[in-house]
Design brief:
The protein has a single domain, classed as Arc Repressor Mutant, subunit A (Orthogonal Bundle). Helix 1 packs across helix 3 and helix 1 crosses helix 6. By secondary structure, it is mainly alpha-helical. It has a two-stranded antiparallel sheet with strand order 1-2. Strand 1 and strand 2 form a beta hairpin. Helix content is 49%, strand content 5%. This is Rrf2 family transcriptional regulator. Keywords: DNA-binding. It holds the Pfam family Rrf2.
């Protein structure tokens, strides 16, 4: 058991945030996201496959294709993103029978409570919260503005 988030989870969160922050709902190519999120393209392509399987993003082929977030940022929690990419922390079942009463179970119970609070916290923070934080910090958004035709 590791309490450390994997690079996969961190990069996946960066990619989801990038889509929500910079793409304005438009499909965005992996190479653009990889550049802004500072993630290797090949690694990010694999991450997007898992995010797509989890129903968090969809893909569109072609020159104007790419990935697009399909869950509203306010409804997408960090717990959902991390769960799509790796197992969330939990104690293994092999630690003993839950009905067994002994002092040896105290650390198990406390760790389980801590893990539960971590999951609760990850379930409270949304991608919309991250967007708000980015705006508060003054980071520019690189949303596609389209073309303006004047005749």
């Amino acid at each position: 058991m590791s309490m450390r988030l994997s690079n996969r989870a961190i990069y996946g969160l960066r990619a989801i945030f990038d889509l929500a922050y910079h793409s304005a709902g438009e499909p965005t190519q992996v190479r653009e996201i990889a550049e802004r999120a500072q993630v290797p393209v090949r690694f990010l392509e694999q991450i997007f496959l898992d995010l797509k399987r989890a129903g968090l993003v969809e893909s569109k082929r072609g020159p104007r294709g790419g990935y697009r977030l399909v869950v509203e940022p306010g409804a997408l929690t960090l717990a959902k993103v991390f769960a799509a990419l790796e197992d969330l922390p939990e104690l293994p079942d092999a630690l003993g029978d839950a009905s067994e009463e002994s002092a040896a179970r105290v650390p198990d119970v406390v760790c389980q409570e801590i893990f539960g609070k971590m999951i609760d916290l990850l379930s409270e923070v949304t991608i919309a919260d991250l967007i708000e934080r980015g705006e508060e910090l003054g980071f520019s958004r690189q949303c596609y503005q389209g073309f303006t035709y004047v005749i």
